[in-house]
Amino acid sequence: MVESVKIGVAGLGTVGVGVLKILEAHGGLLESRSGVKLEVTAVSSRDRTKDRGVSLDGMTWYENASDMATDNNVDIILELIGGSDGIAKDLCEKALEAGKSVVTANKALLAVHGTALAEQAEAHNVTIAYEAAVAGGIPIVKALREGLSGNAISRVYGILNGTCNYILTEMEETGGEFESILKEAQDLGYAEADPSFDIDGVDAAHKLAILTSLAYATPVDFDKVYIEGITSVTADDISYATELGYRIKLLGVARRTDKGIEQRVHPCMVRKDTSIANVSGVFNAVVAEGDSVDSTVYVGRGAGEGPTASAVIADVIDIAAGRLTPTFGVPVVKMKPIPSVSIEDHVGCYYVCLTVYDKPGVIADVSAVFRDEDISIESLLQRGRSEQEAVPVILVTHEVKEASLVRALAKIEKFDHSVARPRMIRIVSL
Ligand code: HSE
Predict the structure, then answer these.
(1) CA 398, CA 401: separation in Å to the nearest integer?
(2) Is 207 a residue of the active site?
């Protein structure tokens, strides 16, 4: 008789139901891939009475998901509840303590407590797997942890949030402003009622912190991620980006420099002919650059029932088949802290948008500030002509240290002829 591995599913939202559907639809295929029968023996969710369109017959129902951790009839726990603390963390810790491997889609949990959970898993010879936590259906965790393990990774970056990518794509296609496109995205169900984690860049930062740990064998350090969301990107920025040959994307970038690691999430201008610039709508994409392999690109759906459940099932199969790998590719004792490079030390080119009165001498004053900060201007364009009203002046800089640019913009903001806070967007060369 084929041995069976018993699964407890905590959280029957979109992903949990997706997992049950795949197990139901592909039982035979999954059995041949894992070498065991995968059987859901326990479930937990908020509402017991809700019809989810899947059968829960024969499964033990837990009101409190944490209690599932010590059920002798459960071998693997699927934590699909979410949140960096509370019940999700409690369940994972109890399950690992009880010697059960955990599969989770919870990026917040991993970004904040990933190293401690990995340590706990190793102490009990089990694992905590999280393919679904980063870029949904794209198998980027496996790619970095296993497929690219022969490489020193110089940079990993990507579109890690589908909501932001959808909004930025729509802004470019329709010319609409952020707020109205966000509202449409909410009406269509592409953005959450409370979209702050997505649009403020926190969700992407959680994912980036995990990717950084995997890429550089270093403890997860979410607090060191510089985070800037997309709420201040304007329709004008998008239109000037187009004119300059760029697209605006919210990217998460982790980069090894000779001073340490940069971890940053912010709107970026990327050349239109790059692969990442052509990933539109809700899609995610990750680019990993290794010294031997060069650049590798992964594109796919970063959220939703099927893609996320697909990643959860892949982890379940690995664990059921006995393929237990260290959580971040190396045992926690082998992880090395690497200094963090602050955003002020970032060196790159910048798009700058000034709003100034159209009077003689304004550009001379602006140029003087840039000269004093040793910032070289690559191009400058002004749109409109109006003595009485403010006009946008767009500048693109050569490479400059961010701290110098920030100082320059603070000086320009104080000019009498400056009528709005200068805006800047980092240009990323890919
Ligand atoms: N809310 C995320 C997104 C998916 O919009 O990509 C889950 O992290």
Answers:
(1) 10
(2) yes
The whole-angstrom separation of Cα 313 and Cα 306 is: 10
Tell whether 124 and 214 lie within a shared domain. Answer: no
CA of 331 to the centre of ligand 1 (A): 28
CA 107 to centroid of ligand 1, rounded, Å? 10
Domain hosting 405: range is 344-427
201 CB near ligand 1 (under 6 Å): no
Q: Is 308 in the pocket of ligand 1 (CB under 6 A)?
A: no
End-of-domain residue from the set 105, 133, 161: 133
The CATH number for 65's domain is 3.40.50.720
Q: How far is CA 124 from CA 57, 131, 181, 253, 344, in A?
A: 32, 21, 48, 33, 41
Are 52 and 121 part of one and the same domain?
A: yes
Tell me how far the alpha carbon of residue 189 lies from the centroid of ligand 1, in angstroms: 12
Q: Is 165 touching ligand 1 by the criterion CB < 6 Å? A: no
Q: Is residue 338 part of a domain?
A: no
Strand spans (E) along 48-187: 60-62, 76-79, 101-104, 128-129, 153-159
Q: How far apart are CA 111 and CA 430, in angstroms?
A: 26
Instruction: Give the ligand 1 atom nearest the CA of 161.
Output: 6
The tally of domains found in the chain comes to 3
Q: Is 71 in the pocket of ligand 1 (CB under 6 A)?
A: no
For residue 404, CA distances in Å to 254, 280, 399 come to 22, 33, 11
Q: What is the pLDDT of residues 71-128, one digit of tens each?
A: 999 999 999 999 999 999 999 999 999 999 999 999 999 999 999 999 999 999 999 9
Same domain, 40 and 146: no
| Same domain assignment for residues 106 and 150 | no
Catalytic residue among 89, 100, 207, 249: 207
3-state secondary structure of 39: strand
Q: pLDDT by residue (tens digit) across 158-167? A: 999 999 999 9
pLDDT tens-place string over residues 197-236: 999 999 999 999 999 999 999 999 999 999 999 999 999 9
190 lines ligand 1 (CB under 6 A): no
Query: One-letter amino acid identity for 62?
Result: Y
Q: Are residues 294 and 418 in the same domain?
A: no
Nearest CA residue ID for atom 4, ligand 1: 303
Q: Residue 316: inside a domain, yes or no?
A: no
Residue 162 Cβ contacting ligand 1 at under 6 Å: yes
Query: Quick one: which atom of ligand 1 is closest to the CA of 133?
Result: 8
Q: Which atom of ligand 1 is nearest to the CA of 303?
A: 4
